[in-house]
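INFO batch 0412 | record 1 of 1 | parsing
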Amino acid sequence: MSRSRMAVAALLVPVAAGAVALLGAGAASAATPYSGDGYVGVRFDQNETRFIADTNTADFLDGIPNEYWGVYLGQGSIYKTPDNVVHASIGQLVDETANHQGQVSFSVNNPAIWRSTVDIVQEW
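INFO prediction complete | emitting tokens
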């Protein structure tokens, strides 16, 4: 595993944990943490996804280089291309998800197991 991938993974684990703690702290919050073999993440419900889109909260994730991202598009996404390359910012993906009244998930992956270090998943 390259040093840069290790550094990104080391940086993102506390960021993900902080996001879960911050966004999951309110009693009305429905942010749902999840984990599995080599990944941890958080799923945001429709209201939280709309809040993230309206406040441009996801823009801070645009600092992560594209080669570390895995993107799972919702059915009929305008960003789907024949070559399976997504030409959109994280903010644009969150906006699209919110506009479909969907929910967005982010996960941080162990780069020794998974191809991408960070995933974004659109669901609607």
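INFO post-check: Strands lie at 32-36, 39-44, 69-72, 103-109, 118-123.
INFO record closed
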